[in-house]
Specification:
The complex is a heterodimer of chains A (173) and B (442). Helix content of chain A is 17%, strand content 34%. Chain A contains two helices and ten strands. In chain A, strands 1-3-8-9-10 form a five-stranded mixed beta sheet, with no helix packed on it. In chain A, β6, α2 and β7 form a beta-alpha-beta unit. Chain A starts with 12 loop residues before the first strand and ends with a strand. Chain B folds into two domains: 206 residues, CheC-like (Chemotaxis protein chec), CATH 3.40.1550; 227 residues, Chemotaxis protein chec, CATH 3.40.1550.10. Chain B has 442 residues and is of the alpha+beta class. The longest helix of chain B has 26 residues. Chain B is built from 14 helices and 17 strands. In chain B, the strands form two sheets. Chain B has a 15-stranded antiparallel beta sheet that branches. A two-stranded antiparallel sheet of chain B has the order 1-9. Chain A: One of its GO terms (molecular function) is protein-glutamine glutaminase activity.
Chain lengths: 173, 442
């Protein structure tokens, strides 16, 4: 959801909740908190400085009934929806690049099979490849949660995670 | 009256749609940016609704009676302070256009007078109408609304007792609850819909796409979950020596994405389990860091190792929390298994120390492969005078739950005692995996 600050033109910070996606430009920041096995997909066009962030929870939207209503819920439909909205806003399809973060597997439950995080990572990578969008950086897997902050102007994806002792590590992608 | 997931899903969409419209209208009216927060369908008993409501802050409400496709009452509740602030900003705005006396009056509001009361009623009414229009859209039907009534007070009685259809202490009511927040200032409003039982039954019949579950079984299931929650509190008290009790207990029906949003946005310490049987699903115990420290202190003899570590939870600390989680899980699931006359096994405990939402989303993702919504058994255990806040989330697999509910013999619930087992847990608890079953009573 886009919210407007009181000063016109001041950068805004937009929270992208689970299953949501947002497209913006310039120095606005798009944030997703507490990604566990969810995957954050950031796409941006360095030339127009238009970008978007999706907080996806499942791999395969083409198989699901409600992916029209909630494209941001699934890795494949989220990537396509982000691209479409960015191009509508003036981005050029051919220069769009991708960064990914998330997809941890914190629990080793039998019912989880190979891991719910891994399934999301695989789906996001496969869809990017299919559409010819280069994956330029990523921070994926492991067993820790992450919070991400994306700025379309620079294409910077900040990834914060914490280790067992509560020390916060910040990775800039 | 029978319900199924499709019908409840439609109700959920109604509640969310309504909350969105109400938030939009509030923004339009006050120029304050708002958004619809967490939306839930709760199954709650009358006395729990009242307890939930009575947090000692003064509140004002605007109540309307509904007829047509839904019969019942719709109530918007503001904290009294927030209502005054909103009215203040509304009156200031109109005063700059017309009359400066108004703005003087609005500037020092601490009581409702005739004018501010009518302004607050108007705000509440516009929001109520937002909700109702949202439902009417989803149901593609007409809902008629009475003139709004302004209510002010501290206790739930003032708000609900005159409502003819408000649930009595022991009645399990289906309650629509939504939060609307202003983006900058964190002002929240609650919305309650008390649908009348017969009109609800008729609606459910219309929306159902499967055979469904008898509503009365849900009532039984809720009572059974109540036992599970009490068992957890009792177990925690026995193990830690900290006197704990069940503070909040709700049976929610929510879209899966809502669950991580509900968890506090801070680092939590938790223990997670998968359980297997009818029903199968996931069980999570989440503690804030302070509570987790308190538990470790209570369970691990001082000087016995690395508990003095400041931030992290060393091996001993982890083991203690896992052990507690393991026994609480047995207690909780025993409550279910006994009543369902079945066996529910649970996995070994998985320890987690991470941002709250990150601990919950793997479970939500796994369930999300096959379902869009979930029943969540949401429990908060607290201790008087000490830090012991434990949130318990039990999220069963939907199809298993429906099966379990249909098999449920409601009459058994009153007969069966629930008993947790203490004697078969040894060592640090990391070996876990104790099966719980109806026939293993001590």
């Amino acid at each position: 959801m886009k919210t407007y600050g009181t000063e016109p033109g001041a950068p805004t910070s937009v929270q992208v909740g689970i299953s949501e996606l947002t497209v913006s430009d310039g120095d606005d920041t798009l944030k997703s908190y507490g990604l566990g096995s969810c995957v954050a997909i950031a796409l941006y066009d360095p030339e127009t400085e238009i970008g978007g962030l999706a907080h996806t929870m499942l791999p395969d939207g083409d198989e699901a009934e409600n992916s029209d209503r909630k494209p941001g819920k699934y890795a494949d439909t989220a990537i396509r929806a982000l691209l479409r909205r960015m191009v509508e806003r003036g981005a050029s399809y051919t220069t769009v690049e991708a960064k990914l973060a998330g997809g941890s597997d914190m629990f080793e439950f039998d019912s989880f099979g190979d891991g719910v995080g891994k399934r999301n990572i695989d789906a996001a990578k496969a869809e990017l490849e299919k559409l010819g969008v280069p994956l330029v950086a990523s921070d994926l897997g492991g067993d820790r949660g992450r919070t991400v902050e994306f700025t379309p102007e620079t294409g910077t994806l900040l990834v914060k995670s914490s280790d067992e002792n509560g020390d916060h590590g910040v990775t800039e992608l | 009256m029978k319900l199924d997931v499709n019908a409840l899903g439609t109700f959920y969409r109604m509640a969310r749609e309504g909350a969105g419209l109400a938030a939009g209208r509030l923004t339009h009216m006050t120029d304050v940016e708002t958004r619809a927060g967490v939306t839930k369908l709760n199954f709650m008993r009358g006395r729990e609704i009242r307890r939930d409501f009575e947090d000692s802050t003064a509140k004002v409400g605007v109540r309307v009676e509904l007829t047509g496709a839904i019969e019942g009452y719709s109530v918007i509740v503001f904290e009294r302070e927030n209502a005054l602030r909103i009215v203040e900003s509304l009156l200031e705005e109109s005063a700059t256009d017309t009359d400066s006396d108004l703005s003087d009056e609005a500037g020092e509001l601490d009581e409702f007078n005739e004018m501010t009361r009518s302004a607050a009623t108007e705000v509440g009414n516009i929001m109520n109408n937002g909700f109702i229009d949202g439902w009417a859209d989803v149901l593609e039907t007409v809902i008629d609304v009475s003139t709004p009534e302004f209510v002010e007070g501290r206790s739930a009685d003032t708000f609900f007792d005159e409502v003819e259809k408000a649930p009595a202490g022991d009645d399990l009511a289906l309650l629509f609850q939504s939060q609307i927040e202003t983006v900058e200032t964190q002002v929240g409003f609650s919305h309650y819909l008390f649908p009348e039982r017969e009109s609800m039954a008729a609606l459910l019949d219309r929306l159902r796409t499967s055979g469904g579950i008898e509503y009365d079984k849900l009532d039984g299931f809720d009572r059974m979950a109540e036992r599970g929650a009490e068992e957890v509190a009792k177990t925690a008290t026995t193990l830690t020596g900290i006197d704990t009790s069940v503070e909040i207990r709700r049976l929610n029906f929510v879209s899966l994405e809502t669950i991580p949003e509900q968890v506090p946005d801070e680092r939590l310490v938790g223990v997670a389990f998968e359980f297997d049987g009818v029903p199968s699903g996931y069980l999570l115990f989440l503690f804030d860091e302070e509570s987790a420290n308190e538990i470790v202190d209570a369970m691990v003899p001082t000087g016995a190792g690395d508990t003095a570590e400041t931030d992290g939870f060393g091996q001993m600390g982890q083991s203690a929390i896992q052990e507690l989680g393991n026994i609480m899980a047995s207690g909780f699931l025993d409550g279910w298994a006994n009543v369902l006359d079945t066996t529910i096994d649970h996995s070994t405990p998985e320890f987690i120390h991470d941002i709250g939402a990150a601990a919950v989303d793997p479970v939500v993702i796994q369930l999300g492969e096959d379902q869009e919504f979930a029943f969540v058994f949401d429990t908060v255990i607290v201790a008087a005078g000490r830090e012991f806040d434990c949130e318990v989330y039990a999220i069963p697999d939907e199809s298993d739950l429906e099966r379990a509910l249909n098999d449920l013999d409601v009459d058994r619930i009153e007969e069966e005692p629930t008993t947790a087992e203490f004697q078969n847990v040894t060592g640090t608890g990391t070996d876990g995996g104790a099966g719980t079953g109806a026939d293993t009573d001590t």
